């Protein structure tokens, strides 16, 4: 049975401030737990007018305090910005707060523009080249493994010392990330929503073919994160998709701004090429009636032999997003969480 999970980016929308976006993510996590989703991941972006989520580890702590079952993760921590030791300490602390529920998803991309990446870490370009070494160190400090004998920080320990450890995932959009995940024997999630699916199956096939079993993960675990929006009808879904289409057009022009209302006018006078681009988006994006969207997700999972599908949904109205997740949960027959009062 395919597991179903959620990625949330705390999107900024027209008419509500960023604080509201963060609170909505917290509430959505609680809602998705009740629906029976396997995990709830939050993202890291910087200097991005469409996405308010910049500190997944802090938001995860709040989610851990207000949920009881669902796994909570980062998708991801952009490791070249940071010290592996500090990331290990943060996520071991999260694991202490929610034992057995923490996922540490890590990526190599900046999650921002070049200037912002430099502001976060002036040595980010060099750190990116050392990504595999950073992962080696992170694994040792997070899971209690040993650093090489000649490592300058071999005797440094990451605290708190706890009995469990977060699950570490590699996130990526290329064969490079797939190979790194396979080398370290880690689960791998392909960011389908970034590439619109291009290269997903090839990367996952490569990941499986060169996978080196680890003690924690003797078998490869592969998933994809897709952008999807489901509604009761095709017309309603396409109507709610319109702001996403406009946002993509603006992004291609280097413009990022909060998501507009679906009945808002286009952000500029659309050319014939723009109109064609939007029509193509409507065909290629996973958007439509719940039966259509569920069928596409199941087809993708079967084609790529996935263990899990992670769903990312944008809409101006948070209730539209919640309803989309609710409809998909029903379509995939995932079991809702039974509360204590309901059990009684």
What does this entry show, briefly?
The chain is of the alpha/beta class and 344 residues long.
Write the layout of secondary structure elements.
Elements: E1 3-8, H1 18-35, E2 39-42, H2 56-66, E3 71-78, H3 84-97, E4 102-107, H4 114-120, H5 124-129, H6 131-143, E5 167-172, H7 175-184, E6 188-190, H8 192-195, H9 200-209, E7 222-231, H10 234-252, H11 272-284, E8 286-289, H12 290-303, E9 308-312, H13 318-331, H14 340-343
Parallel strand pairs: 1-2, 1-9, 2-3, 3-4, 4-5, 5-6, 6-7, 7-8, 7-9
Helix pairs in contact: 1-2, 1-13, 2-3, 3-6, 7-9, 10-11, 12-13
Summary tags:
46% helix, alpha/beta, 344 residues, 9 strands, single chain
Describe the structure.
This protein has 14 helices and nine strands. The protein is α/β, with parallel strands linked by helices. It has an eight-stranded parallel barrel with strand order 1-2-3-4-5-6-7-9, surrounded by eight helices. α7 runs parallel beside α9. The longest helix has 19 residues.
